[in-house]
Amino acid sequence: MDAAVDPGAEPLVGSAATVVLIRDGARGAEVLLGERPHDRGSFAGAWVFPGGAVDEADAGSDPVGSREAARRAAVRETYEEVGLRLGVDDLIEFALWNPPKGVPKRMRTWFFAARAPLGDIHLAVDEFVEAEWLTPVEALERHAEGAMTLFPPTWVTLHELRWAGTADDALAALDAQELRAYTGRFDDDRTTLFWQEDEHFHTDVRDHRAVPDDGPDAEGARHRLMMDRLPWVYLHQF
């Protein structure tokens, strides 16, 4: 499936891969989240899934922007960042995120999921300062309390997995769904992120709060994340 493209978007500067590692825990299905250093790098201070940029070595004979290169990057980055070994066949491809206009580093990012392999986590000190296994609900609650910084792709992924009671449940659901492509656009004050299915994605709405039918019960296509206060509100009616 090809990602929807915003014709007014800035050009991409590369591709990246992210891996949602899932295991069974005492409280249900858990995912591995790591905190990026606060003083450097992409997503400084945020809690993210392991992952990083696709490089030429990942591509081999395939284009750097291909899913094949992204799968190899996902395996490499998981081992480099948290010390867990995966194979490319372990990965379930479930989402493709195209960054909104105006973000500092425009990377088209493939999202994969995999069952966490057995073994201890060994964090790369230049990539993560801390890591935890959390249920998606626990992570979302921490974010809602202001205790954890999340970026929209991580938040939405956790939101989609919040119902999963077991790792099998989560992986089976992700494997069964069609690849989801996200192409986003911020409103002017960057407090709402619209995706391509939203009826206001291609309009010049300068302030989403001025739209009279903007509530959760409104009719019409809504695919947006409202981030003006905590907890964030996700509308996906389309």
Written overview of the protein:
The protein has 238 residues and is of the alpha+beta class. Helices cover 21% and strands 28% of the residues. It is built from five helices and eleven strands, in the order ββββααβββαααββββ. Strands 1, 2, 3, 4, 5, 6, 7, 8, 9, 10 and 11 form an eleven-stranded mixed sheet that branches. β10 and β11 form a beta hairpin. The longest helix is centred in the N-terminal third of the chain and has 16 residues. The protein is globular. The chain starts with 13 loop residues before the first strand and ends with a strand.
Detail the topology: elements first, then pairings.
Elements: E1 14-25, E2 28-35, E3 47-48, E4 51-53, H1 56-59, H2 67-82, E5 92-98, E6 107-115, E7 130-134, H3 136-144, H4 152-161, H5 167-176, E8 180-186, E9 192-195, E10 222-226, E11 233-237
Parallel strand pairs: 1-6, 5-8
Antiparallel strand pairs: 1-2, 1-4, 2-3, 2-7, 5-6, 8-9, 9-10, 10-11
Helix pairs in contact: 3-4
The largest β sheet comes out as: 11 strands, mixed
Q: What shape does the CA trace take?
A: globular
Category from helices, strands and their pairing: alpha+beta
The end-to-end distance, rounded to whole angstroms, is: 18 Å
Average pLDDT for all residues: 90
Based on CA atoms alone, the radius of gyration comes out at: 18 Å
**Estimated helix fraction:** 10-25%
Describe the structure concisely for a colleague.
The chain has helices at 56-59, 67-82, 136-144, 152-161, 167-176; strands at 14-25, 28-35, 47-48, 51-53, 92-98, 107-115, 130-134, 180-186, 192-195, 222-226, 233-237. With 238 residues, the protein is of the alpha+beta class. Helix 3 crosses helix 4.
